[in-house]
Amino acid sequence: MAIGLEDKKAIVAEVNEAAGKALSVVIADYRGVTSADMTALRSQCREQQVYMRVVRNTLAKRAVDGTEFECIKDALVGPTILAFSNEDPGAAARILKDFAKENDKFEIKALAVGGELMGVEQIDRLAKLPTRDQALSMLANVIQAPITKLARTFNEIPTKVTRVVAAVRDQKQDAA
C-alpha cells in the first residue's frame, strides 16, 4: 500500500520525536508473528511506556538522523519493529526478550543505548538493568546502611555497660 509524502513526513517526525526522548531502542524482526500476538505485544509496550512502531527502513533511517540512535542504520534490514524505552532503559529489552521466548518466529536483531549499537547477545545485560524504582530502593538501602550501623553501635555501649555492672554485681554476690 502506497503511503503519501505527507504521511511519510508525519511518520518520520513521530519516530524522530520518540527517538529524541528515548533512553534505548531494541530492533526486532516480526515475520511470522500473528496479529493477535502483535496486539498483545503492543499492549505490553504501552503499559511500560515503550514506544513501539513498525516502520519502513528508509523512513526509520531518516527518522533517527540527528538522534543518538543514528548507529542503528546498518541494522535496519528486512521487516523491522523499533521499540524505544522512554522511562526505563531496560523496559523494551525485557518485553521483547520475553515475547521472543514465547514466539519462535520473533527475532531480536540489535539494540542501542547511548549512541552505541550492540548485538543481540547484549539483550540480557540491558534487560537485567533495574527499573527506576528498584534503583532508588537500592540507593536508599546503601544510604541507610551506615546510619543503621551507627545506631547499633550507639546501642551497644549502654548494653556493654549494663553487662559489666551485672558481672560486677554477680562477682560481689558470689564473694559475699
TrEMBL record:
Entries under InterPro entries matching the protein: Ribosomal_uL10, Ribosomal_uL10-like_sf, Ribosomal_uL10_bac, Ribosomal_uL10_bac_type
Gene3D superfamilies noted in UniProt: 3.30.70.1730, 6.10.250.290
GO cellular component: ribonucleoprotein complex; ribosome
Protein's UniProt keywords contain RNA-binding: yes
UniProt superkingdom: Bacteria
GO process terms (BP): translation
Keyword Ribonucleoprotein: yes
GO molecular function per UniProt: large ribosomal subunit rRNA binding
Keywords: Ribonucleoprotein, Ribosomal protein, RNA-binding, rRNA-binding
Signal peptide location: none
NCBIfam families: PRK00099.1-1
Subunit structure and binding partners: Part of the ribosomal stalk of the 50S ribosomal subunit. The N-terminus interacts with L11 and the large rRNA to form the base of the stalk. The C-terminus forms an elongated spine to which L12 dimers bind in a sequential fashion forming a multimeric L10(L12)X complex.
Job of this protein: Forms part of the ribosomal stalk, playing a central role in the interaction of the ribosome with GTP-bound translation factors.
Entry's family note: Belongs to the universal ribosomal protein uL10 family.
Protein name: Large ribosomal subunit protein uL10
Organism of derivation: Oleiphilus messinensis
